[in-house]
Amino acid sequence: MFDYIIRNGLIVDGLGNPGKVGDLGISNQSIAEIGQIKEGGKNEIDATGLVVAPGFIDPHTHYDAQITWDPFASCSSWHGVTSLIFGNCGFGIAPCRPGSQNFLMRLLSRVEGIEMNALQKGIHWDFETYPQYLAMIEKQGIWVNVSGFIGHSVLRQFVMGEKAWTDKANEAELTAMENIVYEAMLGGAVGISTSTHKSHIGDDGSPIPSRVASREEIIRLAKAMRRSGRGLVQISVDSSVDESGLDIVADLARQADCPVTFGAIRFDSSQPNRHLLALQKIDKLTAEGLRLYPQVTCWKLTIDFNLKNSTVFSRMPVWRQVLASARSEWSKIFKDPQFRETFKSELEKIGRSFILQSKDNSMHINSVSVPSLEPLVGKTIFEVSQLIKLDPWETFFNLAIQDNEIEFKAVVLNTDEEAVATILQHPQSLLALSDAGAHATLLCEAGQTSHFLSRWVRERGIFSLEEGIRRITSMPADIFGISNRGRIQKGLPADLVVFDFAKISNQESELLYDLPGNEPRLVQRANGICWSFVNGQLLISNGKILDHSDVPPPGMLLRPLAN
User: Fold this and answer.
1) Torsion of CA 162, 163, 164, 165, to 10 degrees
2) Which residues have C-beta within 8 Å of that of residue 173, sequence separation ≥ 6?
């Protein structure tokens, strides 16, 4: 007798083949039968009118810390995600020497926007090496399948200490890092991640350790990874990949003979043809035989931020003065005419001046701490400048002087849906960049798969249902070397999601205070996710996460195969 039978659903196998109405039987954690099942099951689900698909895979998350206290990887699992990859962009919490925990937590707090108090109270530090970290996660029990990159910045700190922030690695340090990467691969890592992204900075505005490294260092670490016979590199090169970013990517893929996934390609209104040039170059490099997978997203990039954690301004050298100063000194800085002029010049240089000058895309005021400014909440900087008859630049600085806790919202990338459709449809494009687990109070895009299926597959129709599901199941599984996931085939693990295609979507983000220490985070809930299974164990039933307190967690560490 089957443990579960899912009856009369539209079974979409994740490989792009046409969906077929039928039954699916689950036994002993695996898919035991597909077709018309006459036998009975211990439990039966009527999926009439619903889609039965492989569990979704999220290739770009930052659950490195959260997974140590949250075995459900919420809120990704709420959206039918059954497997995920963490450790992206060179970040993480392993390897970690005793006494280095604060460094890693500060880095996560600064770059990933997680409250320090939550990290201090939540992370379990029962490890030192990367294999020990993965083993700890597996031993404690998880409700999703996971695999992780060893992060370059974390690795540099482990080997070089404080010099990681300032120095090139010497030969002894390079050899030590190579050995640790190889050890991590043998212990189950999916690859190595790194970043040259200009917005990735520390508390004082200085570049994170991976940005200090030479290109040769990154290539040597990639070669050490490939000695294991598998693995890929993930590299963050810029908010919208340019020629120099693609040169680094091509060098890595060519010299280390490995797949490289990189990000991000987005539409940038300040350079409206940039994404097309990038895609054309990727076509040429792919034709050479390089395995390149640009990471793309189906969202507009909308950022909630304040003056301290601004990812919009953090890549500007002039803003380091703000980051390195106490709030009490900000007023003096913002009043300085030289600072204002340099700020204006640098914002124009990175193509973001439109967020202050544009009538349509200007920053909105999200919240204020000064009561007299409350009537301005919801208005754009441009609108306020019209009201008070000041230049938008002067308006912004005057507001910052009056309220150094003011918060803004800005839409900065992917503002043109036709351009986004072109990016998404490219055959090498990997739907990623949910950043789930990061940017706790800035944004939440953990419901990326729900938004992709609702907006781009159902409403816009740029993919068939079958191709849309392939893009978030077998495609990432194959790229990451976990090819026993992301597909419905007899004998494979029963990672499944049953959803209502007519209803699947995201709910509006909401703020919860459920991180350790009652710290806040934004979450997204899903509509239309009816049931999900992880390795044959029911996780979501009738749209609700079950109480699993008495059930052994079925999730496992995914040890990638050769690729």
Assistant:
1) 80
2) 159, 160
Task: Name the β-bridge partners of 497.
Answer: 53, 532
Q: How confident is the model at residue 37 (pLDDT cuts 50, 70, 90)?
A: very high
Nearest to 493, CA basis, from 503, 482, 502: 482
Report phi then psi at 370, rounded to 5.
-100, 115
Q: Where are the beta strands (DSSP E) in 414-548?
A: 430-431, 496-499, 505-506, 510-515, 519-523, 526-527, 529-534, 537-541, 544-545
Query: Which amino acid does the sequence have at 535?
Result: N
Q: Identify the residue with better confidence: 121 or 354.
A: 121
List the structure tokens of 362.
Answer: 């200007």
Say if residues 48 and 498 touch (Cβ distance below 8 Å): no
- Tokens encoding 263: 């990000």
Q: What is the pLDDT of residue 240?
A: 63
**In this structure, are residues 211 and 200 in contact, taking their beta carbons and an 8 Å threshold?**
yes
Taking 3-state DSSP, the helix, strand and coil percentages for the chain, each rounded to the nearest 5, stand at 35, 25, 40
Residue 310 pLDDT more than 80?
no
Q: What is the pLDDT of residue 543?
A: 93
Q: Which domains does the chain have, with CATH numbers?
A: 2-54+522-545 (2.30.40.10), 56-300+414-480+488-507 (3.20.20.140), 304-412 (no CATH)
Strands in 308-372 per DSSP E: 364-367
91 Rama sector, left if φ>0, alpha if ψ -120 to 50, beta otherwise: beta
Query: What is the distance between the alpha carbons of residues 380 and 365, in angstroms, rounded to a whole number?
Result: 6
In this structure, of 27-31, 368-372, 390-394, the range with the lowest mean pLDDT score is 390-394
**Cβ proximity of 320 and 204 under 8 Å:** yes
The tokens describing 522, both together, are 């934004």
CA distances from 221 to 195, 238, 252 (A): 13, 21, 10
Q: Is the pLDDT of residue 239 over 70?
A: no
pLDDT at 486: 98
Q: What is the predicted pLDDT for the residue at 361?
A: 65
Task: Please tell me the pTM assigned to this model.
Answer: 0.90
Distance (Å, rounded) from C-alpha 315 to C-alpha 307? 13
Q: Does the pLDDT of residue 311 top 80, yes or no?
A: no
Strand, helix or coil at 305? Answer: strand
Size of the chain in residues: 563
Alpha-helix runs per DSSP H in 113-198: 116-122, 130-140, 152-160, 171-186
Measured CA to CA, the distance from residue 53 to residue 6 in angstroms comes to 11
Tokens representing 419? 């351009």
